[in-house]
Design goal:
5-stranded antiparallel beta sheet; binds magnesium ion; binds adenosine-5'-diphosphate; alpha+beta
Length: 348
């Protein structure tokens, strides 16, 4: 029997064919309590293998719950999750929670032994039945995560970024097919994030690993993920490849999340000569301002952001945030015309 099937745990299950590697259908997850919380509400999704998929959304939107449902740590109240067509077993099906072909790196390094050496944290995941293999495989895994030089250090003495690499090495040493990560870059200094993201991408290319990660900061995953799942209030509001979602979001929330877009209503849009019956999104980089005395709008605020400035421009009915790259700023209070290069009109 293939190790990826779950029929060894759920004898009544039959394989569903013609669905994506990870397939969720009408999943609802409720936390029962004084007041029930519907953390995930009737979501369906498809996740391809050998790709990086990011689940993004604001805090409390249900991302971590969805990740746990995929791994089998939580039992959905209704609906089902399948891996390679087989139901993902949960606590009621097997003693040790978590799908055998998957590994999860949780938030906050709970699994790491802070006072043990890096080597031991990683090597301890392998049995002692073949010591030669254990040694070479541990070496190889530490090298892949670029932490071989830290092998003899205690995890407690490492930086957040290095600890994250140890946690990933530990998860990958047994060659899982799917790696699940909850907010993996949270504890990693901004300067080291690019490096870690690059290395994860490289591992996916080299080994065909499937990665699913959760993030509340979409900017950091736009460059990394092959596919995004956008969550809001327990629902999936958008899904697709990052570029499509950036330029053609279905939902204003996605435009706000991915592009910090200006979301305006139809009345405000008409001030800018944009016709629409619903909300409109204008990304900050789609707005140009042009100095002109007696113009209908003024510069209200300027935020220095380094290589660009963020201007707040508008009148008493509308405020827009615009990215401006000129070196000599237009002073606050100056009259300006607003030139809109592009905009998105929503149908909902
Ligand atoms: P996210 O990861 O997007 O921040 P979560 O999946 O952690 O969101 O949580 C979604 C919702 O479910 C939130 O309202 C949260 O408070 C609630 N929740 C999460 N875990 C529990 C739990 N163990 N008990 C009760 N409510 C929970
Ligand atoms: Mg979370």
């Amino acid at each position: 029997m293939a190790k990826t099937s779950s029929c060894q745990y759920i004898p009544t299950d039959t394989q569903k064919l013609g669905v994506a590697a990870i397939h969720g259908e009408n999943i609802t997850s409720i936390f029962k309590g004084k007041k029930d919380v519907i953390a995930v509400e009737n979501v369906s999704f498809d996740i391809d293998q050998k790709k990086i998929t990011a689940i993004i959304g604001e805090s409390g939107s249900g991302k971590s719950t969805l990740l746990k449902l995929i791994y089998g740590l939580l039992e959905p109240h209704s609906g089902e999750v399948r891996y390679k067509g087989w139901l993902v077993p949960t606590r009621k099906d097997k003693l040790i929670p978590g799908h055998d072909a998957m590994k999860m790196v949780s938030q906050g390094f709970d699994d790491l032994n802070l006072y043990a050496k890096v080597w031991d944290n990683v090597a301890s995941q392998l049995p002692n039945t073949n010591l030669e293999y254990k040694k070479t495989r541990t070496e190889e895994t530490l090298k892949k995560l670029r932490i071989d030089h830290l092998a003899q250090q205690r995890v407690a003495d490492l930086s957040g970024g290095e600890r994250q690499r140890v946690a990933i090495a530990r998860a990958l040493i047994n060659d899982p097919e799917v790696l699940l990560m909850d907010e993996p870059f949270n504890q990693v200094d901004a300067a080291f994030r690019d490096g870690l993201q690059h290395d994860i991408k490289q591992i996916v290319l080299e080994t065909g690993l499937t990665v699913i990660l959760v993030s509340h900061d979409p900017a950091e995953v736009l460059a990394m993920a092959d596919a995004l799942i956008v969550m809001r209030n327990g629902k999936i509001v958008d899904a697709g490849n990052p570029k499509d979602l950036y330029y053609n979001p279905k939902h204003p929330y996605t435009a706000l999340l991915l592009a910090k877009s200006n979301i305006i209503n139809a009345t405000q849009a008409s001030i800018l000569q944009i016709e629409s019956t619903k909300q409109v999104a204008i990304h900050q980089e789609w707005i140009d301002v042009e100095e002109q005395p007696n113009a209908p709008f003024i510069i209200k605020e300027i935020k220095f952001r380094g290589f660009y400035s963020e201007y707040v421009v508008g009148n008493d009915k509308i405020n827009l945030h615009a990215i401006v790259k000129t070196k000599t700023p237009i002073p606050i209070g100056t009259g300006v015309n607003i030139l809109i290069q592009d905009s998105i009109s929503f149908s909902q």
